[in-house]
Task: structure prediction
Amino acid sequence: MASIRQLPSGRFNVQIRHPNTKQKSKSFPTKAEAEAWAAQIESEHLKAQAQDIEQTPSISFEDLGTRYCSLVLKGRTSFTITKQRIERMAQHLPKRATAITKRDINTYRLMRLEQVSSVSCRDELQLIHRIYRWAHREMLLDETRYPSPCTGIAMPPTSKPRNRVVERDELELLLNELQPIMRVVVELAYETAMRRGEILKLTPKNLHLEDRILDVVDGKTGDRSVPLTKRAVELLRESLEACPSSSSRLFPVEPHSVSTAFRRARKRAGLDSDVRFHQLRHSRITMVARKGFNQAQIMMVSGHRDVRSVQRYTHLNVMDVINHLD
Result:
């Protein structure tokens, strides 16, 4: 990937890094020249990769998937999970990426449906299709000669959407079963509708408590500002006091630790399995909708950019609208 920076001399320096290749660096008097050189080098690199895939027998599906992870998912929380999933799938798809056929994918689909849920199988097939689409678009792999082997394959059905709303008394049961730091993370998710990863990346620099706002940087839908309830401000202020430095994370725990703690607390509290961490986000968005907020205001809280996504997260029932009729 190319990065351009202006030097103290006024010239523009370009640095290009790709996995398993030597770094390239060059300086130019203008930014336009720097961008043109970077685009040329990137184009040459992509063409070389495409030729590598088409002409080298050793380029397997696992190799292609690994490149996808390195170039697209690097730095994201999904990187490790996706890479491990590709490694597992590659054991059943040992051919070259360009030699895998629809028959291979269908055989894999039938095998996996006997081992995992239809949702898990669907996710794996969608990942395979996504990798090939990326290769067509970014690596200039000929889509006519090497189409995605998932095209035309019958996808397993999706699961029914969860419409469970976690009420405040249920939240209290959960909080009573959690350790202090996990308790704050869970209650903050309930108060802000933030995603797990967004909460765990927070640092003091992201907080503007006097204005009751915090900044989400590089979230799922990009950067955004989150409005805070009074309770959320209290929780964040307490966490801020315990934070050792302005660059430290407010909650130095791993995502899987939060999920594990949540599941164990749910079990101890005697709540059903539909009470999940992500349902806290659904619950807050539903509560905002119950207050009569319009679509734009709800999207300001949720961070969604698509109205259809908001509708999937808003679980209103007929009793929620009766008081607004008269």
About this structure: The radius of gyration is 24 Å.
